[in-house]
Design a protein that fits this description.
Layout (H helix, E strand, L loop, with lengths): L4 H14 L27 E7 L7 E4 L4 E5 L1 H4 L1 E6 L5 E6 L20 E6 L5 E6 L25 E6 L4 E7 L4 E6 L5 E6 L4 E6 L4 E7 L4 E6 L5 E6 L4 E6 L5 E5 L4 E6 L5 E6 L4 E6 L4 E7 L4 E6 L5 E6 L4 E6 L5 E6 L4 E7 L4 E6 L3 E7 L1
Antiparallel strand pairs: 1-28, 2-3, 3-4, 4-5, 6-7, 7-8, 8-9, 10-11, 11-12, 12-13, 14-15, 15-16, 16-17, 18-19, 19-20, 20-21, 22-23, 23-24, 24-25, 26-27, 27-28
């Protein structure tokens, strides 16, 4: 969701205040957690390690699993900020400005800006792929909107590839209208992008660097997760009540009934269970993929948005946008283990397996980093 105009004014005020504030609060704990590796995540508690400020408006955060965490700052800051997951320090700010003509789109001249929404890392750790809500510059006159359909005729947008050696955008891919989520398959064969206003999923071949298929989804496709063997993708249709299960060999689709308004989805490490946030009802639900039935559902707060799972699969983390909280759940039964008041409008969450930390994106200009102790 794009913030309303008054929120943008608040951003400026908060950033001004942040310039007089230490980069971390009194609870800073910059060392990684030292709990025993035999201790399961479900047995620990969220403890604030640091509050990260800066010229940011993070819509989402994403851990690479190799020591990086990125924040994607939409059209309000036109940037991706990349952090060291161990020191929590800012490593690079990557502007979203590109010359489209340099990438073969010769109908466009000059510089263009994007609006980074979500990101996904290549399995080899070489690249970060980032979706852009819209493009800004000459020739882009019909910016997308959260209320839309293919009939709206908004402009198509682009997926960027950021080289993590040079921290430069070195490839772009034209996708649909208002692309939201991107996932790289674990075998590094495909890039999958949900297009909010096109009502579809773009499939890009990593080998050919070309779009090979567009799969109809329906109103407001969003969350994506891929099985660890790269054979199956799951796509949440936020404008409905289903998950689309897509065979990545045949591209045939089956529907999983999950509940109204599914937004974010994750899989258990053994890929037998799928977890989803149901935004309108403020719930998290668990679905057994082998028995084809819902296991449990729990209310975590108002507007359950993003979702992450610990590397051992025992704990889930969900941000509740309108409640201003992050909740930690027992993945086995969805029992709420802890709810923490985190910030105004928490919108994104990621779990970093290299440090056992949970990162929360606060839309108004902060990132909260928690140890699990």
């Amino acid at each position: 969701m794009r913030p309303r105009p008054f929120i943008f004014m608040l951003l400026s005020a908060l950033l001004f205040a942040a310039s007089f504030t230490s980069e971390s609060n009194a609870d800073d704990t910059l060392t990684a957690t030292t709990r025993s590796v035999t201790t399961s995540s479900v047995s620990t508690k969220l403890v604030l390690a640091k509050t990260i400020f800066g010229v940011i408006t993070p819509k989402s955060v994403r851990a690479s699993g190799t020591g990086l965490v990125s924040a994607h700052n939409m059209m309000y800051r036109h940037s991706v900020t990349i952090y060291d997951s161990h020191t929590l320090e800012l490593l690079h700010t990557v502007p979203d400005t590109v010359e489209l003509s340099k990438f073969g789109y010769t109908q466009y001249s000059g510089n263009y800006k994007g609006a980074p929404v979500e990101g996904s890392y290549s399995p080899d750790g070489k690249y970060l792929y980032v979706t852009n809500y819209a493009m800004y510059g000459k020739g882009f006159d019909h910016e997308g909107h959260d209320t839309c359909s293919p009939a709206s005729k908004f402009d198509r947008s682009f997926l960027y590839r950021i080289n993590l050696t040079s921290y430069e955008i070195d490839a772009i891919y034209q996708v649909g209208v208002v692309p939201k989520v991107v996932e790289v398959t674990p075998d590094n064969k495909y890039l999958l992008v949900t297009n909010w206003c096109s009502y579809d999923l773009t499939v890009i071949s990593v080998a050919s660097q070309k779009v090979i298929r567009t799969i109809p989804i329906g109103a407001y496709p969003r969350g994506i997760v891929v099985s660890k063997d790269s054979t199956t993708a799951y796509v949440a249709q936020m404008g409905g009540a289903t998950i689309h299960q897509i065979d990545l060999k045949t591209f045939k689709t089956k529907l999983i009934p999950i509940g109204v308004n599914p937004r974010a989805i994750v899989l258990s490490p053994d890929n037998t269970k799928l977890y989803a946030t149901l935004n309108l009802s403020g719930k998290v639900t668990a679905y057994d993929l082998l028995k084809h039935r819902t296991i449990a559902t729990v209310t975590t707060g108002k507007a359950a948005r993003s979702l992450a799972i610990s590397s051992d699969g025992t704990a889930l983390f969900v941000v509740n946008f309108e409640s201003g909280t992050v909740s930690k759940l027992n993945a086995a039964n969805l029992k709420i283990l802890q709810t923490v008041k985190v910030c105004t409008q928490p919108i994104g969450v990621t779990y970093d397996s290299t440090t056992d930390r949970t990162w929360v994106a606060c839309y108004l200009g902060q990132i909260k980093v928690f140890n699990n102790l």
